[in-house]
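We modelled the chain as a single entity of 70 amino acids. Its sequence is:
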Amino acid sequence: MSNAILTSAKPPGNWTQLDKQLTQAKTLLRQMSRTVEDIEDARTIERVKRANANKPRIPWAQVKRELQLD
């Protein structure tokens, strides 16, 4: 490929539209990232629940006393 071909390429004429699409893509990516994090959190919670399923529960009143929340 020659330099003449590279330098003769015209930039897109509608930068406003491209900027809008880029902004929308960034927003979508942020939303998808949050969704993935939420799914990972939910999986972690379910794993911990299964791991602790047979362990005795600590009454809330006892937890508050031990942490001096009363």
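As a brief sanity check on the tokenised model: Residues 7 and 14 are 19 Å apart (CA to CA). Residues 18-52 form one domain.
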